[in-house]
Design goal:
The complex is a heterodimer of chains A (about 425) and B (about 170). Chain A has about 425 residues and is α/β, with parallel strands linked by helices. Chain A contains 17 helices and 9 strands. Chain A folds into 3 domains: about 20-225, Rossmann fold (3-Layer(aba) Sandwich), CATH 3.40.50.11540; about 235-320, Roll (Ubiquitin-like (UB roll)); about 325-425, NADH-ubiquinone oxidoreductase 51kDa subunit, iron-sulphur binding domain (de novo design (two linked rop proteins), Up-down Bundle), CATH 1.20.1440. Chain A has helices spanning about 20-25, 30-35, 40-50, 60-65, 90-95, 100-115, 125-140, 175-180, 210-220, 225, 260-265, 300-305, 325-340, 345-360, 370-380, 390-415, 420-425; strands at about 75-80, 115-120, 160-165, 205-210, 235-245, 250-255, 275-280, 290, 315-320. In chain A, the strands form 2 sheets. A 5-stranded mixed β-sheet of chain A has the order 6-5-9-7-8, with helices on both faces. A 4-stranded parallel β-sheet of chain A has the order 3-2-1-4, sandwiched between helices. In chain A, α7 (about 125-140) links the parallel β2 and β3. With about 170 residues, chain B is of the alpha+beta class. In chain B, a hairpin with a 2-residue loop joins β3 (about 130-135) and β4. In chain B, α3 runs antiparallel to α4. Classes of the chains: A alpha/beta (about 425), B alpha+beta (about 170).
Chain lengths: ~425, ~170
């Protein structure tokens, strides 16, 4: 029987308070970590198989191993709470309801890599989250979990909050570092990676908060416990945010590898109003759309790649049979056109061209050849930008055309919507 | 009054957080916006002086980050999300209803200065769609009836007090 750990505290009364966290075993993992050497902690994280939960899925232990070992070089942990991928609402819930779980993960990470400074970058829109972070950090200082000589270990760690101000791109790690330095959130060319040259030119470990929330549990229960959950290449528990046309939208903590159909039908209560399932976006707005006949797929990095999509942030957006896929592609293109940071030409110009094409097809002004132009434009963006946003903005239109091309053709030929024609007759 | 007169301690606290003072530009801009309702020309000049930054750089930031404004907004900022998960649950029709009720378009402010409507990007509350933030406070699972009542409540509140900010 799977036992949720990341969300185990969030439904308790006053779950955000340090007293609640301590009452339920909070900060025990830090004590346990301090009993081991930093190398042992890095080895545990490697053996756990933990991969990043922010979208890219990079192995966390490997990232820790990339940090320079030289103790004289100051190092930084940068915590990514810039959750902005449409459909994703897991990080906000953890921050608002159990911030100490993340702080504990940050302390352990900082101990393992030898960092003395941590910055929490949080979306400016998360007003309650900002408040909860600030209060949690202050309480952690007061209880001796932050500051000088933490729990007598000789380790020092300072932590503070940095509010964003409305920019999706700052969820990309190097754009976030730029923003932390007081600049526009333009992604940097990699390499060098943040582990070599990060914030203020110093080696920096960047993690999404769900990744950090896994750390205390790995230390307490052991890497074998964590690696015992999930699939071959995707280990541990994961919070899936389910939204759209389902009966019970919400966050569900489940083992990686669970079937997408089970998430939709069992946990989220199935498609609402007795309608049939049409399509699902399995990992947030930037991941390719899957048609209903592909939802018997395990929710894991490798299996979703094989199915033609990605795990992304694990945000499942469900669409029923009455959904027009041209409109879905148009709306997603609009988001990315708005959020392009403007640095790379293919993304800056291409995102707007894609949106214009989709908008005109949706509104009955499409021309023969538009579908080909969309695919050509999408392929002219993906892989030709500094950051993964190029692929992100090409995915929705490309996958919608791949699986639902007849709807685009109908829109162009009949100046109207196939789905509407079917459901209004 | 300048920020250094009213918020000296806060400014010093923010500067102390970073090895490079340029990093404090976002917290200081947020501070100015909270104090004056938007980032005024004077505030831009003052912050540029404190942090030794170009005015052009700061204006670039205000243009880049959607939550920073260099002109006043309504007393109540109605930010309705119209991204995909909200749209699947009726956000577009709701946004149109809101515009009709107030007689303005997204991006505009009512002539009495009370309300500004903005169509914003995902605010990470897709399980409670459609969603609107009002001065930073979430209003969830909205429909036309709830929206009408909310507008009435806000109008009444505005008659007796200053609006509450930031949840």
């Amino acid at each position: 029987m799977f036992e949720p750990v990341l969300t185990r505290n969030i439904h308790r009364p006053y779950s955000e308070k340090i007293t609640t966290y301590l009452e339920h075993g909070g900060y025990n993992a830090v004590r346990k970590a301090f009993a081991g050497t930093p190398e042992e902690i890095i080895d545990m994280v490697k053996r756990s198989g933990l991969r990043g939960r922010g979208g890219a899925g990079f192995p966390a232990g490997t990232k820790w191993g990339f940090m320079p070992k030289d103790q004289d070089i100051p190092k930084i942990v940068a915590v990514n709470t810039d959750e902005g991928e449409p459909g994703t609402f897991k990080d906000r819930e953890i921050v608002e309801r159990d911030p100490h779980q993340i702080i504990e993960g940050v302390i352990i990470a900082a101990y393992a890599i030898g960092a003395g400074r941590a910055y929490v970058y949080i979306r400016g829109e998360f007003f309650l989250g900002v408040k909860r972070w600030i209060k949690a950090i202050a309480d952690a200082y007061e209880h001796g979990f932050l500051g000088k000589n933490i729990l007598g270990s000789g380790m020092n760690l300072d932590m503070s909050v940095h509010r964003g101000a409305g920019a999706y791109i700052c969820g990309e790690e190097t754009a976030m570092l730029e923003s932390l330095e007081g600049k526009r959130g333009n992604p940097r060319l990699k390499p060098p990676y943040p582990a070599q040259v990060g914030l203020f030119g110093l080696p920096t470990l960047v993690h999404n908060i769900e990744t950090l929330a896994c750390i205390p549990h790995i230390i307490e229960r052991g890497p074998e416990w964590f690696a015992g959950i999930g699939t071959e290449e995707s280990k541990g528990p994961k919070i899936f945010s389910v939204s759209g046309h389902v009966n019970r939208p919400g966050n569900y903590e489940l083992p990686l590898g669970i079937s997408l159909r089970e998430i939709i039908d069992e946990h989220a209560g199935g498609v609402r109003d007795g309608k049939r399932l049409k399509a699902v976006i399995p990992g947030g707005a930037s991941t390719p759309i899957l048609p209903a006949n592909r939802v018997d797929v395990p929710m894991a990095f490798e299996t979703l790649n094989a199915a033609g999509s990605q795990l992304g942030t694990g945000a499942v957006i469900v669409m029923d049979e009455t959904t027009c896929m041209v409109e879905i592609a148009r709306r997603l293109a609009k988001f990315f056109a708005h959020e392009s940071c403007g640095r790379c030409t293919p993304c800056r110009i291409g995102s707007v061209r894609l949106y214009e094409l989709l908008d005109r097809i949706e509104h009955g002004k499409g021309k023969p050849g538009d579908i080909e132009t969309i695919l050509e434009t999408a392929n002219g963006i993906d892989g030709l930008t500094f950051c993964p946003m190029g692929a992100a903005l090409a995915n929705p239109a490309r996958s919608a055309i791949e699986h639902f091309r007849e709807e685009f053709e109908f829109h162009i030929e009949h100046k109207g919507c196939l789905v509407k024609a079917v459901y209004s007759s | 009054m300048a920020l250094l007169d009213t918020h000296k301690e806060d400014i010093e606290r923010h500067l102390a957080k970073y090895p490079d003072k340029h990093s404090a530009v976002m917290p200081l801009l947020a501070m100015a916006q909270e104090e004056y309702g938007y980032v005024t020309q004077d505030a831009i000049g003052e912050i540029a002086g404190i942090l030794d930054l170009d005015v052009t750089h700061i204006k670039g930031l205000i243009g880049f980050y959607t939550m920073l404004y260099d002109r006043p907004k309504g007393k109540y900022l109605l930010q309705i999300c119209t991204d995909l998960p909200c749209a699947l649950r009726g956000a577009e029709a709701l946004s149109e209803h809101l515009c009709r009720k107030l007689g303005i378009q997204p991006g505009e402010t009512t002539p009495d200065g009370l309300f500004t409507i903005e169509n914003v990007k995902c605010v990470a509350a897709c399980d409670c769609a459609p969603v609107m933030q009002v001065n930073g406070h979430y209003h969830e699972n909205l429909d036309e009836e709830k929206l009408n009542k909310l507008l009435e409540d806000l109008r009444r509140e505005a008659e007796v007090s200053e609006p509450a900010h930031y949840d």
